[in-house]
């Protein structure tokens, strides 16, 4: 089956997107902030952080975004290809798209800054820098943003190759500051005169900024220095002052509107406020969430916006100089010089709230809701300060490497390893706090494993009774943890303790997994699947597949018959038996006569009539070597002994030679491990020191015996490989190959064959429900499924798995291979349900249960119960969905007030206590079901009054969220136009829907009832009110028609309002 022909799913974006790559822009009054995120522009409210509007019209990344000076509601953006976009950002309407007229050759726009120059246009002109080809100098232009035309300017400024740093002054001083490398330029864009200066010590400049109110400029360099420039309009009278506090390159600068102070930031995650007149006076905001990338100050000095590299925007008060609020939708992990994985825990699912958990800031875990697309909170796991990076040093921080989740508990593993000292490893257990809606630390365990963790897993995700946790470390030991009463009188309660530990034949562990009920624990040691009792770690079974079935070892066993087979020559058989006897004798002796007999027999050939030519000695040795290496009856040690007896030396490839030398050095040289154990004795208590010293002495004796055997028996054999003490690998002469091989392979380097070893299990996963007896394991090139009922391999797939995710609701397994392919299958039927190639590079997979599962077979819709989410290396969460489908389609159905009879129950079923009340009322209402059909609806009256009563009569504790009620409630209060016309025309269809013939108990009246007169009056009043509503609707329609012709008047009114707003005067005290 070809899935590409029937695949209609598209890769859609769920979370992520960098909002701090470019500096944000404030509106004229500072009430809104504009943020560039990919191809869209987001508009946020500064006071609440609410997203009010998104502008999607850009087709390429925006390199600049600014608000026009004279039209505060006009937003102008520029793309890398020179396309100008003009938005009316309050309405979200794209007014115009303009292409810059910079020539016929393709041009890459580098910067675009608006100037206070209009030249008769309705929008400002822009100072644009661009590059046509790689390696060419940067060109600059003056462009009209309303027409895209280029203006000729009489200025002799010529730029270099590097991308410039540009800032523009739009206040009383009309200057452009531009920096390239260690040169800085000041340009007066009124007279178009420029001045060039050089930074001190030829240090490259990293950022520049102009003060909006004073003739003052600032530049920061890579040494952390800040230069303040004054009187830069003259080459001789320029004044420069140096302010130095940062020890890392300056990342951003910003001035206050008055110019009395300025702000700076480096890579120390500290915001510094300087006094422009007295630089010695400084204020600090230390320990920001991450490295500061941009600093933006609003025009009225109400807000200071700081963008940090963890994808957050933090608002500070200019007067109090402290953080007031933060805006963050998805936390980014920072890349460092260590080259380690940014997301070591991958993508996890918290079963308590079905939120996504992944690494975020250094030492933190972020909890993200995929249902609402909101970041819930960042949990600080590591209780230590983060060390800021340095230019010439490699800085290590404590990282959260593993995490596991239960409905009430969370386990985390953190490691600090600077590659010099002993690794600091901590295992922490956290309990969920209902009041705080967060996790509190319960147990902190130091050094549970050596060097770090491999896997942490709970025995059950949804049960708390008899809960256990298993950890596997890089020391290849599995430890089982359980809760017990705390012996601390100051902190009563339950804590976690180790109850058992185990290992298997000192083999490398790859992964562990609990069964669904927690009774079994499966561990992958090498190519062996070991089953333990989940309560005591008692070994039950050790399963290994046949040789070669795991896809790593390819063995072929050849068995020779001991008796003569038809067609076998008797003399050859006898010759082989004689040669085998001689070789066995040579293993224990060094007889020269036997060696010559063996050479003769090996080089002997069947009798021929022609005369035999003399065979050269090198050719005879080569034939002996080939014959010995083909003998499957001998081990490698025996083969090396025979080669030594025949005085044959082998040529080993450089790769294999280095590996053998390293192995010999580890085996023979004094190991670092013994020194560490000896030093560890001093830190032990006295009662344990004697036992540990005795065990260490025994280990040293065994080590000495081993080294003695190796030097006597093994090292002499390595002379065959030119690796003994008397022959050095670098100076050893390689044996000359035959002339025929030399001519054929001249100038060609044959790569050495890879060393094959045992397969290593990387993933272990139990099934769920009816497939709980199946276990899937993943090796380097295979996926094997074991049946624990028969203890046999049930199926196998040829897949090289890097990521695996299991869905317990549907027993679906999703894997991503090394070739970036997605495969989805079930354990019992390992046939692909879905396949997809060219998947983005991922760091994690997880199945997210749907809030409203679809009633469909998994063969037709494999995401009917759960959605597969992927965390890409671009730090984005994506998923597969049909075109036009969004995650909001999975939201619960909104409330419906259309039916008066079911209005109350439809509201109750969406609340926790409401569902309980429905069940309680079901039994009492079952007896009156027949009468209720005859007596009419539960709520008597008009539809609008029924909706109001259904809402008012709800109890507070049974009422669902207002977001699910308001939409349909307001719609229920409106009357459709077609039904209104029908009722006004006196159509009799609606007469049967009224309750005029029913009393309060739903019992029908007789025709002679006296209530008919009152009913006629009510109907007459209703018709009059409907007539009034119809008249109002007709007038409203006329107003709408007039509104179409008044668009010009509306624009004039907007212009008047802008002029009135421009007259506002802000007083500062």
UniProtKB/TrEMBL annotation:
Name of this protein: WD repeat-containing protein 75 second beta-propeller domain-containing protein
Gene Ontology biological process: positive regulation of rRNA processing; positive regulation of transcription by RNA polymerase I; rRNA processing
Assigned keywords, A-Z: Nucleus, Repeat, Ribosome biogenesis, rRNA processing, Transcription, WD repeat
Comp. bias intervals (Acidic residues): 1009-1021
PANTHER family assigned: WD REPEAT-CONTAINING PROTEIN 75 (PTHR44215:SF1)
Transcription recorded as keyword: yes
Originating gene: Dwil\GK24714
Presence of keyword Transcription: yes
Organism whose genome encodes this protein: Drosophila willistoni
Pfam family, one: Beta-prop_WDR75_1st
Record localization: Nucleus, Nucleolus
Domain of life of the organism encoding this protein: Eukaryota
A single GO molecular function term of this UniProt record: RNA binding
Region (Disordered): 727-749, 985-1025
